């Protein structure tokens, strides 16, 4: 999912020996920010290259420099064949298949590989790292395919397609999005392909950059989406004549999960000064408890928040890592297992569970609006003339179909492993697969929450002359101004759903609320 981008040129991101931030990655991936190598990074790259050159000249075989790769690592490669070795490695590993991966994912992947090169632990030459930075800055995006990575030895095939472009080979998308040969795109940008030398091919393809890039983009999206889910939950509590007393801070404090407290605080603020809530606060109200999907929304949305922040902690560690094999450490080069994607794969799968469960609760709140036996006086399916009109009946079907898909996507990829490379790589993470399905999960959650917002807004209109809170009224107003009409006879519903989806995806729903009550937690 891609939020709306600003028309202003984003600031240049400096890639140095220190870790990038999530904001850096989003700026480059989505907003097209250019990148430059920092001075410390250039010095670290040069130092590591001196080590590699020294080992390449020595008679003793060193893995990744003067040997074959994977199960073929036992063969010593003579000096005159090492350039061919690097070309062969990249060409053979660029074996992806299937649809093109999204531009933002490939840009994130390229930036994160550059970040690892900048640590001075990979042994590439300065000009190779610079060309990768130049591709990012010129908006040249190699074509990477959906299938090919097992998430161990990193994202080999996706990264190999990017390395292929550095060699002036393979297809790329230029800054305008046109599909052109890499050689043409580089020439048009005034760039010269590199001829890879010892160690460089392996250094360009042996990382977790694809799965990490998708994790960082998902974290950014989910943080916004979970605030939006608090908004949709508040609208549903309000329009279903629920109580806000269960969200009181002292009730949350006796179960001190931080995300729960933040979510409940949001709900309290969102429902403040609601005429609808005030209308049933008196002694005549005979309802004892609200349904779980209303009463427990801070517990679910809050747990989701805490899970996202756990994933952010893991992502931060990975951003601070140099993922390659072998790595340059001091004056030596050592093999290691840091390319294994398990840490990233686990949290990618965890976030797919979060997306499915938050969406499941959202769908349950929507369904309550449409059932006249549970909607507390609203017309069946919120229809204008029930029987003649079906109202939002099938919007809930759409939600249910998406939630069912999200539950399937929540089945973890990281528990699977298929050995590869003649059993040399006998356990793999499947982290790339976990990342790909999480992107679909985030999109699905966006759509489910948007339909709840659309439904709750219609219900609030139907509660007139009772007035919603200033915060939820701002969301209703946003929808009405954004192409989502209020109650009335049936009309073509799909365009209105898509309009609501875009308002959620872009962050406009959260912005509308925050303009009234200040920043949400």
Q: Summarize this, please?
A:
Pathway: Amino-acid degradation; L-histidine degradation into L-glutamate; N-formimidoyl-L-glutamate from L-histidine: step 1/3. InterPro entries: Aromatic_Lyase (IPR001106), Fumarase/histidase_N (IPR024083), HutH (IPR005921), L-Aspartase-like (IPR008948), Phe/His_NH3-lyase_AS (IPR022313). The protein has 20 helices and 9 strands.
Structural class: mainly alpha
* Rounded mean pLDDT score: 94
Order of helices and strands: EHEHHEHHEEHEEHHHHHHHHEEHHHHHH
Summarize the biggest pleated sheet: 3 strands, antiparallel
Query: Which CATH C-level class of the largest domain is it?
Result: Mainly Alpha
Helix content bin? 40-55%
The CATH homologous superfamily name of the largest domain equals: Fumarase/aspartase (Central domain)
**N-to-C terminal Cα separation, in Å?**
22 Å
Enumerate how many helices there are, as a single number. Answer: 20
Strand order of the largest sheet: 4-6-7
Taking all Cα atoms into account, the compactness measure Rg is: 26 Å
Strand content: 5-15%
Q: How many strands?
A: 9
């Amino acid at each position: 999912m891609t939020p709306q981008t600003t028309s202003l040129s984003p600031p240049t991101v400096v890639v140095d020996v220190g870790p990038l931030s999530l904001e850096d990655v989003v700026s480059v991936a989505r907003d097209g920010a250019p990148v430059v190598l920092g001075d410390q990074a250039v010095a670290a790259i040069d130092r590591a290259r001196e080590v590699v050159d020294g080992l390449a000249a020595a008679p003793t075989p060193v893995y990744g420099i003067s040997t074959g790769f994977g199960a073929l690592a036992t063969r010593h490669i003579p000096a005159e064949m090492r350039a061919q070795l690097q070309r062969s490695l990249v060409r053979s590993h660029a074996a992806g298949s299937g649809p093109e991966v999204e531009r933002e994912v490939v840009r994130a992947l390229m930036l994160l590989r550059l970040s690892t090169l900048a640590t001075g632990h990979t042994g590439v030459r300065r000009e190779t790292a610079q060309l990768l930075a130049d591709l990012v800055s010129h908006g040249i995006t190699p074509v990477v395919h959906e299938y090919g990575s097992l998430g161990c030895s990193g994202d080999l095939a996706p990264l190999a397609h990017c390395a292929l472009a550095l060699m002036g080979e393979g297809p790329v998308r230029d800054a305008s999005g046109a599909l052109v040969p890499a050689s043409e795109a580089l020439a048009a940008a005034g760039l010269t392909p590199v001829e890879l030398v010892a160690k460089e091919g392996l250094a360009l393809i042996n990382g977790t950059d694809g799965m990490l890039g998708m994790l960082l983009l998902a974290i950014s999206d989910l943080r916004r989406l979970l605030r939006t889910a608090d908004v949709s939950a508040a609208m549903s509590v309000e329009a279903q004549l629920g109580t806000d007393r269960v969200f009181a801070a002292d009730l949350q404090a006796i179960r001190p999960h931080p995300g729960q407290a933040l979510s409940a605080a949001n709900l309290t603020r969102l429902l403040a000064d609601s005429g609808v809530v005030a209308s049933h606060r008196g002694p005549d109200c005979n309802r004892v408890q609200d349904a779980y999907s209303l009463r427990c929304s801070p517990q679910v949305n809050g747990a989701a928040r805490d899970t996202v922040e756990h994933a952010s902690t893991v992502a931060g560690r990975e951003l601070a890592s140099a993922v390659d094999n072998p790595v340059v450490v001091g004056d030596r080069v050592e093999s290691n297992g840091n390319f294994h994607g398990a840490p990233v794969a686990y949290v990618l799968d965890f976030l797919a569970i979060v997306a499915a469960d938050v969406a499941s609760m959202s769908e349950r709140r929507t369904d309550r609006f449409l059932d006249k036996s549970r909607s507390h006086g609203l017309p069946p399916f919120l229809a204008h003339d029930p029987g003649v009109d079906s109202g939002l009946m099938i919007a809930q079907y759409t939600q249910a179909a998406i939630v069912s898909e999200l539950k399937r996507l929540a089945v973890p990829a990281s528990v699977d492993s298929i050995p590869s490379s003649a059993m040399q790589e006998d356990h793999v993470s499947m982290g790339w697969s976990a990342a790909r399905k999480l992107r679909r999960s985030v999109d699905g959650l966006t759509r489910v929450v948007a339909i709840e917002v659309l439904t709750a807004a219609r219900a609030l209109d139907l509660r007139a002359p009772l007035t919603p809170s200033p915060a939820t009224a701002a969301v209703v107003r946003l929808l009405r101004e954004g192409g989502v009409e209020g109650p009335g006879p049936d009309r073509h519903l799909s365009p209105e759903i898509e309009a609501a989806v875009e308002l959620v995806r872009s962050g406009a729903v959260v912005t509308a609320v925050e303009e009234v009550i200040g920043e949400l937690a």
